[in-house]
Amino acid sequence: MYGCEAWTISKQIQNKLEATEMWFLRRMLRILWTAKKTNERALNEANKRRSLVRTLRKRQATFLGHVMRKGKLEHLVTTGKFEGKRSRGRQREKIIDGLATWLGPGKVSDILAAVKDRDLWRDMIANAYKQGT
Predict the structure, then answer these.
(1) Can you tell me the distance from the alpha carbon of 115 to that of 54, in angstroms, rounded to the nearest whole number?
(2) What is the pTM of this model?
(3) Measured between alpha carbons, how far is 125 from 99 in angstroms, rounded to an integer?
(4) Quick one: DSSP state of residue 65?
(5) What is the phi-psi region of residue 54: left when phi exceeds 0, alpha when psi lies from -120 to 50, beta otherwise?
(6) What residue ranges do the domains of the chain occupy?
(7) What's the CA gap between 8 and 43, in Å, rounded?
(8) What is the torsional sign of CA 77, 64, 5, 7?
(9) What is the pLDDT along the chain (133 residues), one digit of tens a residue?
(10) Which of 31, 49, 52, 57 fits as disulfide partner to 21, beta carbons 3.0 to 4.6 Å?
């Protein structure tokens, strides 16, 4: 998870991360792949909720808050507000866009405004983490 704050997590990558986490969990519980146990049953045995993607999103959100409050070059790069021509084709997903979907309904501009208030930002992250979205 080193450097996960800079990852852009698309739906495809999220599915791969969840599958890898489930594979790790089944290996730790010593559940053979030939055994007829569903993933839900394996999770019930572990009494654990899957949380790898949630942890990554939480780390990204805390890092984003730090960068946005700092207001230096990283702020410009993260928000995508630097001069130049846009490249052709579909634009790449930004970290801020992924966090906007994770934090719930709202615009990116609302999120950037919430980052300035540290207590509000912490509450938003805590609520999103508890909901498990």
Answers:
(1) 19
(2) 0.75
(3) 10
(4) H
(5) alpha
(6) 9-50, 51-133
(7) 27
(8) negative
(9) 788 888 888 889 889 988 888 888 888 888 887 877 777 777 776 666 667 888 888 898 888 888 888 877 777 777 766 677 777 888 777 788 888 888 877 777 888 888 888 888 888 888 888 876 5
(10) 52
